[in-house]
Amino acid sequence: MIIYVGILLGVLSGADLYARQLPSELSVDYAPYNPLSLVLKKFNWLENEFNGDDVRIRWVFSPGSDSALKSLKADSANISSSASLSSVWSKASGNPIKAFYVFTRAEWLSIVVSHDSPIRSVKELRGRRVAATPGTDPYFFLLRALREAGMHKDDVVIVPLTHREGRAALELKKVDAWVGGVPYSTSSQLENGFQVIYRNVLFNSDGFLNVSEDFANNYPQAVSRVVKVYERARRWALSHPDDLEAIFADEAKVPLPIARGVLSKFDFSNPVIEKNDIRELKDASPVLKDEKLIGQDTDLDKVIAELIDTSFVLRQLAPVSGSM
User: Where among 203, 224, 250 does a domain terminate?
Assistant: First the structure.
């Protein structure tokens, strides 16, 4: 009898352990700069994936990388989307996160001025008011553009506004320039005649999915299954570009021509954080120290190494690779 009870308890303990491999609720963000997240939300693919496991999906809106990473830190989101350099900055600032998936590589940034502005170059921004959201890729893009022009952030007046607020401020001429991200920058050019004074595809970060270290350690199965569903969305996006444009236009509340223009600059071909992506991050990250956004003794190579975790996506891709 004692043996049977022991076996029964072992079975129950195993079942309980398996149940704890998934949370009761999974909070995932959706963002206008992450088209794949809009696809997942539209088709309820995450809900369907976890439907039989009694896991509730809660969607959290991220207007920018800064809010996405704050949501992770506050445990109000489990999975969030951000620009890769924003992830490095957040990690270096003490946010215990892992970046595990590339949702896009894109040219999604530019510095714009109003249609009648006399400003034609980054150097002419000296002493001017420039709108950008701290902690986001547009903000870091501005810092790198200024440094390339031999300037620093103190040479301009950075007005901390959200992407939408930045566009509105430039429309009302409350600022002289705005560092815009998609879809707002593209729509502003077509609808308001804003002029691009600076573009640099090399200064654009990748789009990363991030997860808190605690969540990844406690619920690795959940993270793996999020990757599985993201892979479904990525493959769907590659094979249904017209439908993707329609979904993006609807969810991001922009006209179809703008959605088409935005998505033409997005690359969904490879979800793995590769050596080249890491090299680009190492090239970009010194601006965080140079502009005193993190401690001067921060070991950025170590931060990046501890940030990146490709194990989830590589496990998901392994069966595909093995079957070829």
Answer: 203
137 and 159 part of one domain: yes
**pLDDT averaged over 10-residue windows placed end to end, the chain, 324 residues:** 48 45 98 97 98 97 97 98 98 98 97 97 99 97 98 98 94 96 85 93 98 98 98 99 98 93 96 98 97 97 99 87 42
Domain count, the chain: 2
Say if 49 falls within a structural domain.
yes
In the prediction, which pLDDT does 44 show?
Answer: 98
CA separation for the pair 123, 102 (Å, rounded) = 33
Q: What is the DSSP string of 125-159?
A: GTT-EEEE-TTSHHHHHHHHHHHHTT--GGGSEEE
Please measure the distance between the N-terminal and C-terminal CA atoms of the chain and give it in whole angstroms: 52
Among left, alpha and beta (phi > 0; psi -120 to 50; other), residue 135 is left
Question: Which residue range forms the structural domain that includes residue 71?
Answer: 39-107+205-273+286-322
